[in-house]
Amino acid sequence: MQIQSKSVRRLCGSHNIITVNGEFPGPTLHVSNGDTLVVKVINKAQYNATIHWHGVRQMRTGWADGPEYITQCPIRPGKGYTYRFTVTGQEGTLWWHAHSSWLRATVYGALIIYPKEGTVYPFPKPTQEIPILLGEWWNANPIDVINAATRTGAAPNTSDAFTINGQPGDLYQCSTSDTFRISVKTGETNLVRLINGALNTDLFVSIAHHKMTVVAVDALYTKPHKTTVVMLGPGQTTDVLVTFTKTAGKFYLAARAYASGQGVPFDNTTATAIFEYTKTSLSSITPEMPKLPFYNDTKTATKFANALRSLASGEHPVFVPRTVDENLFYTIGLGLINCPPGQSCGGPNGTRFAASMNNHSFVLPSSSSILQAHHLGIKGVFSKGFPDNPPLQFDYTAQNISKSLWSPVKSTKVKVLRYNSAVQVILQGTNIFTGESHPIHLHGYDFYIVGSGFGNYNAAKDPAKFNLEDPPMRNTVNVPVNGWAAIRFVADNPGTWLMHCHLDVHIGWGLAMVFVVNNGPDLVSTLEQPPSDLPKC
C-alpha cells in the first residue's frame, strides 16, 4: 500500500487528496478466516500516517493495530512499516482506515473476510456481493479543516457531501455522470456490505422499494431480520441480503445523516447510488427515491439497534460473561475548557471545545506509543488509574447541568485489566453542552451489547433487563443520545487498546481512554515482540 497524493474531480472542482495506491476509496482486501496478512505501507504523502484494521481482533499482534501513539509511532513521510497479523475466527465485512489526524477522510477501504475453505455462509449463497463504502467529503483539505479548528478550539466545518464508493451521486452538482451504479437481474439475491466510513456522521441507508434482511454486523452474524432502513454509526458495518423482485427500473440506494445532537451543525445532503435492472430499456428513466427517516429520528435509529440479535447457533455460539470481575461506569460526552491566557478561542463564549470519559479528556503522548512504553517499561508516557467511576455523580442527562461540571481534566490515563478478566462497561451519555449519540469503538475486541436505554443507567433495576442469551456482538456501539449502553467482554488479548468515540471530531477533543491488558500465564497469552521496523517517534 502506497499512501500518496492524487488529484481528483468532485463537486465541480479539482482537489488534491491523500489516497492509497491512487485509489479513492482505497483497494478492497479479500481474505479468508485464518489468513495471515502482510501489508507493507509506504508513506509518500506529506503527512504522518498509520493504518488501522478496524475490527480485526489482532490477537497478540497489537503492534499491527495502527492508532498513532497508542500502538505505534506514526509512519513519517518517506518511511514505511509492514503490518503483520492473522485474521482469527472472524468472517464478514470489516474495513481499514488511516488513524492519524483526519487522514481517514480519504484513506480507507473494505476488508472482506470469507468463511474458511470448506465452510459456508449461514444464509443462502448470494448472486453478487456488493461493498458499499459510505464516506464524507470536504472540498477543503480535511487536514486543514481540523488544524484550523484545533488552533482556535472551535468546532470544525461540516462536510460538503456524503459519498458512496467515492461518488456523491445525482443530487449534487457536477456529479451525475460518475454516480455509482450496480446492474441487477430480476430474482437475484445479493449481499450488500454496508460500511460507514464517514468521519463525523451517523447515517441512515435505504433502497427504494426494496427490503433489506440484516445478516451480520461488524463481521459477526445476526439472526436475520427484515428492515427498510439501516442506521450505521461511523466505524460500523452491516451486511444485508436484498432480493431484487422488480422486472425493470432504477432504484436509488440513498444515505443521509442521523443527527441526534440538538443545535449541532451537520451536513444535510443526501448521497445516492443506483441499482439498475438489466431489462430497463430507457436510459433517461429517473431512479426512484427511498423514503429516508428524518434527520433527528431517534426512534427509528433505536428500533434498528434493538432488533439486532446474535445468531447464537451451533457453529456460531454465544459466550456472554454471566458474572463480571470489573464493573466499570464511564460517562461520555462533551465539555468546554477555558481559553489559555493571551489566546483568542473559537468555542462558545470564547472557550475551547473538549470531550471526555469520566471527566478525563484524553491527550495522546508524543515521545513514545503507549504500547512501547508499557512493553519496555518507559516512564512518563502514561499513568495508571483511569477512574472506574466518574469523579462526581450527578443527573447525567438533565436539561440544565451545572456549568461547574463542564470542564474536564486533561490526562493520559489508562485502566489496567488482568488477563482473562470479565469486564462490564456501562457507557453513560451526558447532556453537557448537548447530548448526542456516540459510536464508541473498542480496539482489539468484540463485545456483547447486553443492554441500552435512555436517561440515566439504574444499577438496581436495569441489569434485570439485560439480554445474556443472544445479545448482538460488535466492535462499535452507538450509545443512545442522552442514554446508556452496557457492554461485556473477556480481556483475553494482551496489549494496549484504545476505546474512543468514532466521530473523529470527538476523539480529537479527548473522548477516549486506553485499556492495558496484561499478559497471560503462557506464550500463547503473551504479546508478541515488537517488529524490527516499528516506526520511531
Automatic annotation (TrEMBL):
One Pfam family of this chain: Cu-oxidase_3
One Gene Ontology molecular-function label: copper ion binding
Cofactor note: Binds 4 Cu cations per monomer.
EC number: 1.10.3.2
InterPro entries: Cu-oxidase-like_N, Cu-oxidase_2nd, Cu-oxidase_C, Cu-oxidase_fam, Cu_oxidase_CS, Cu_oxidase_Cu_BS, Cupredoxin, CuRO_1_LCC
A Gene Ontology BP annotation from the UniProt entry: lignin catabolic process
Subcellular location as annotated: Secreted, Extracellular space, Apoplast
Domain Plastocyanin-like: 3-117, 129-279, 386-519
Domain of life the protein comes from: Eukaryota
Cofactor(s) needed for function: Cu cation
Catalysed reactions, as listed in the record: 4 hydroquinone + O2 = 4 benzosemiquinone + 2 H2O
Cellular component aspect of the GO annotation: apoplast
Entry keyword set: Apoplast, Copper, Lignin degradation, Metal-binding, Oxidoreductase, Repeat, Secreted
Principal EC category: oxidoreductase
Transmembrane segments: none
Family classification: Belongs to the multicopper oxidase family.
Functional note: Lignin degradation and detoxification of lignin-derived products.
Protein name: Laccase
Species for this entry: Taxus chinensis
